[in-house]
Amino acid sequence: MANKPIVLHLGDAIKYNHGFYNDEFLRRFNVIQATETDRQGFIQALKSKKYGNFSALFRPHFQTGGFMGQWDAELISLLPPTVRIFASAGAGFNWADVDILGEHKIWYANGAGASDEAVSDTALYMILSVFRNFTRSQLAARTADPEIFTATHKLIATISQNPRCHILGVVGFGNISKKLAFKARVALGMKIHYFDIIRADPKEETELEATYHESLDELLKIADCITLHTPLNKHTQDLIDARALSLMKPGSRIVNTARGPILNEDALVHALETGHISAAALDVHYHEPQVSPRLASMENVTLTTHIGGGALDTRINFELNAMKNILAVVGPDGEFVGDPITPVNRRAFEGAA
C-alpha cells in the first residue's frame, strides 16, 4: 500500500465514477487529499514535503481545487521532482502556466473531448440567436405585455436573417470548433471559413468544406459571424479588440464560448452601440463572474453563465479522463510509462532537457 505512487488530490472528492476510482485508480495509486484552503498554506505544505514525493496532481472538478490560485513559477518550482503529470478537469488552462510545467518535465492534461459536444451545441444555439434575435424576442415575451409582444413580433422579422449561406468565421480550429463547423454547415447551411496558427489536415478541410485563411484579419473581413475557440494566454488576451472589430463587416455578429478576456468587452460595447456589430452572444465574460452591466442591458446580446460545457455527461467524463490521464503516464514505481490521453503542453514537455 505504502509503496504505491502517491497522487495528490486537489478539490472535492469523486462524485460520479466510483467504480473506476475504487477498482482501477486506488488499485494503482495511494491518493492523498490536500487539506489547505489558501495559497500560503499550500506553499508551506510543499516546502515541508507534507505530502511526500507524490507522482501526480489530480483535480477532478474544475470548480474546486483552485484554492492556491495561479499555478506559476513560484508554485511549480516547489513541486517534488517525482511529479509526472497534472491532470485536471475542464478544457481551459489559463490558471496554470503549462509551459513552465513542461519545462519541469511535468505533463499537463486537461479534459479535452469531454465537453466538445456540449460546447459546440452551445455555440450553435448562440449562432442562431445572433442571427434570429431570439434574446430580444424572449425578453419581450417575458414582459407578458401584449403591446410589447406585438411590437417585437413585427420588428423581429425586419431585422433577422437565416444563417444559411452566410459565412461563419471560426477563430481557432480545434476539436470543439470542428464539431461546431460540421453542425453549422449540415444543420444551418453555413459556409465555414477558419483561422488557426496550425492549419488543419487537408482531408479534414475537405470533409468539413472549410476554407483556411492565413491571417485573422483576412478572416474577420469576410465573415458574417465570428465564433471564438482559442485558449486564453498572453497572445490571445484582447485578441478581438477595437481594431479587430473594425475590420468586420458592418452588421456582422460575434459569439464567444472560449474565454472572456479574448474579446475586449469595452470595444464590443462600442461596436454594438454604433451598430457596426449587430448582435453578440457570450457564454464567457471578461471579469467573470461579473457580467458587463452595459452588455446585460442590450436586447441584441445573448448572455449565459459559462455553461457551454455544462452538461452532466461533461462532468462525468472530466472526472474519468483525469484519472485515465494519470494511469496512462505514471507506472507502478512512479516512473513515466506513456503519454497522457489529452496532453496540452507537449511542445514544452518534449523540448525540456
TrEMBL record:
Residues 126-308 form the D-isomer specific 2-hydroxyacid dehydrogenase NAD-binding domain. This is D-mandelate dehydrogenase. One of its GO terms (molecular function) is NAD binding. Belongs to the D-isomer specific 2-hydroxyacid dehydrogenase family. PANTHER family: 2-HYDROXYACID DEHYDROGENASE-RELATED, D-ISOMER SPECIFIC 2-HYDROXYACID DEHYDROGENASE NAD-BINDING DOMAIN-CONTAINING PROTEIN-RELATED. Pfam families: 2-Hacid_dh, 2-Hacid_dh_C. GO terms for cellular component: cytosol. Residues 70-309 form the D-isomer specific 2-hydroxyacid dehydrogenase catalytic domain. It comes from the Eukaryota. Keywords: Oxidoreductase.
